[in-house]
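#help-structures
NK: newbie question, is this the right format to request a structure? protein is PPPDE domain-containing protein
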Amino acid sequence: MVVCEVVRLRNTTPCTFHIQAEDIFHSSPKIDGHPIEEDHLEVPPGFDAEADGLVVPWFLTSIDGLIIREAGSGCVVRCSVGPKVDSASNSDWLQLHCLDWDPVSEENWFELGQRHFIGAIGQSVQLQLTFRQPRLFCPRPIPGSNRLAKEPEQRLQVPTEASALATWLSFASEVESAPACTVFLNVYDLAPATSVLNSVLCNTMVKTFGAFHATIEIYGQEWGFYRQVDPEVCGVCRSRQPRQHPIHVYRQSVNLGQTRLTEAQTYRLVRSEVAKLWPSKRYDLIHCNCIHFCDDLAKRLGAKPVPAWVRGLHETGAAAASLVRAASEMGRMLGFGREPPQGGLAAQGQLADETQAAESRT
């Protein structure tokens, strides 16, 4: 399934709404870093805040779905994730239902993307939910004409049915809704073969580590660090088509906050300062890779650091490599490891030659 997270809530209407998340598979949601202490989240007029852990549940594993209620009238919309019954595609949708789980306002359903691995695992999608009052038009006579003109109706019509409330809900991609100065960490699976494992190890229920590639997106451009054929050239590359890659598989974007730099200042920062510090020859799979680059660039932009679940595998690898080196050095000091390995020195020399040849090819 495609995992759907609501990461920002905005209310531009004069009404108050209640959101109730009842999903046993996910932790309690937070608003601006603070846990929700009541059994529901109140969204008053003018509300605008970040959300964490507010997951729209998979329809097969949830009893109630994500419940949205208008406080005055009490009408309810249930939100869930699942495929369309009459669709032949492999896509999941954010679906809207009434209290009895009958579908409502299908034209406002949001397509989340395709599933993979026999429909069991998919990508993670971050959405912004905006409560927005629909504009209603009332006819008025046009002087000297038999026609009627339509004017926006100023009177507030509070939704009293699920189908009406559904039209007040506007879901949009967080990346496309955020200001241009927002710094995003774009996370990719290293290859299609690693997508399933990454989804098992890193999801909304558990975040450990995974095999990821990462880039920084800012002002519509994506910056990444790569090993080049010529080690002396710059390792920083720019893409004008963010979240697309011929090898790596896009997984999700993580909002790291906003930068105070303008677009021109950001470009000068990368070209004049950062690029000089990241030549291709610095690239090391464990100790100096694309994720280290993203962490450095995010810091220079005044954004939050790369999350631990993205860094986890590389930090674990670096720690393991340090332990191996320490153990090897300790063994040398104590006199261990002086005997040649089985197969003799010739075999050892052949292995070294093969290793050097492999290193030269990479």
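mod (FA): yep, format's fine, and the tokens are attached above. The longest helix spans residues 308-334.
NK: thank you!
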